[in-house]
């Protein structure tokens, strides 16, 4: 991609930090584990970096390093997503409203 | 047309929006799963965009790498037990950090003479990614009990750690100043890995919620730094979103333990204190053991029971049996609730996930602030493998290591039954005043076996 000026990138970074705090502070305690694994999945975005490195590698060293990065990042993306999905599927409301006893 | 950088930028923007929506949907368990699908779609857009528009070659290598990673990821995610979720999260933190560090190493190798800003990003990505990788592996080993969950300490540990980190930082500064030698970054990575190992080793099991959250933040920040290396906004933003999530959770967890992050990281908390683990207090009060039959009578005739689960329930895999017991009691008109302490278990929200797995409706789970006033109207508080989070010393004894930590007010209940393996002290390595309370009885044994005995005893009532 066309490189952006450093200051613009830093601006984006800072705004993303504020956005992250804002959005995540609304996540209830109950969902903190899925939040962690969901965040795990999102940092799997380094797969983009792994693809760029491996996809443009010309020498053996870069190919090896890029390949390992590719394996790790894919495991991160796929595993992070599946485990989050599995977990969130378990959170259920009470099946029938037989609220409380006497 | 198709290689227009604007199109690529817009597609990556779609990914960013999807990720933010995914996190936004996590504010309620109703929509959370849908949100994860949106996030997944966003990831696919980013991967497709990268593959199509970034001048990619080496397709065979990419395909093989992706296949291996997918198999590992799917098998891991499918088979992991909910009790082992902290390990799983730790390992995913690690691989993400490792990938970020490797991308930095490749860029250092390939760029002839990177500018100072590019070098700074490479250094940060390698440094933080490596710390996260090594730290996560150690956290995994501790949670999986390949290593002792107790703090592993040696004299001068903090000094050595700081020296290692300073040396790594020094190498990083040399690189930024223009020393473009391959070994500089390799040495930096080696030192960062060493630091990652050493900083997690002295941290004990119950502090893991803080450490895992922190490593999560590190990996996010490493991904963000990689974004600066590759001039990729999608990496910068996504990494920072994770960085914010991890940071926020770290602060919340530390607050729930009333400890500073520095104290968690450098305190080697949880070494067993001399004299701990006795069944008798200095003033002659003793612990009273009870039988499943007695507890069954107590539970059957209660109007309200609050279950207080802790790590002991996770270890014994007793969540399904606990739910079964609760169902039987509810069938007899007993009001059953669950009280969840924010740091119960080994990661944020650990107990909620376990009970959700056992089909306990989330409406029945109560957070600490919500449930604490209810203990006073509760007939039986059933404490299952939770210790420090119920210790009244946190309220009353300024000398206690956990003084000031917000706890569940279990001692306010009319009677308390504690399911515990033995009289070993909890993680903090201190005695629990609760066990000496005249209202408390102890049911010793494995949590799962005790619950199964309780179920049959209650059925016989």
Account of the 3D structure:
The complex is a heterodimer of chains A (102) and B (461). With 102 residues, chain A is mainly alpha-helical. Chain A has a domain at 30-88. Chain A is 69% helix and 0% strand. The radius of gyration of chain A is 20 Å and the shape is flat. Chain B is of the alpha/beta class and 461 residues long. Chain B has three domains: 1-79; 87-266, no CATH class; 292-460, TPP-binding domain (Rossmann fold), CATH 3.40.50.1220. Chain B is built from 17 helices and six strands. Chain B has a six-stranded parallel β-sheet. In chain B, helix 1 (5-25) packs parallel to helix 9 (233-256). The longest helix of chain B has 28 residues, at 116-143. The radius of gyration of chain B is 25 Å and the shape is globular. Mean pLDDT of chain B is 90; it is low at 272-278. Chains A and B meet through helix 1, helix 2, helix 3 and helix 4 of A and helix 1, helix 2, helix 3, helix 4 and helix 8 of B.
Topology (SSEs and partners):
The complex is a heterodimer of chains A (102) and B (461).
Chain A lengths: L5 H19 L7 H12 L2 H10 L4 H29 L14
Chain B lengths: L4 H21 L6 H22 L5 H21 L5 H26 L5 H28 L13 H20 L5 H19 L7 H23 L2 H24 L4 H6 L25 H9 L3 E6 L1 H6 L2 H13 L3 E6 L9 H8 L7 E3 H4 L8 E5 L8 H4 L18 E6 L19 E5 L2 H14 L1
Parallel strand pairs in B: 1-2, 1-4, 2-3, 4-5, 5-6
Main beta-sheet annotation of chain B:
6 strands, parallel
Alpha-beta content class of chain A: mainly alpha
Low-confidence runs of at least 5 consecutive residues of chain A = 97-102
Number of helices of chain A: 4
The low-pLDDT segments of chain B are: 272-278
What percentage of residues of chain B falls in helices of 4 or more residues? 55-70%
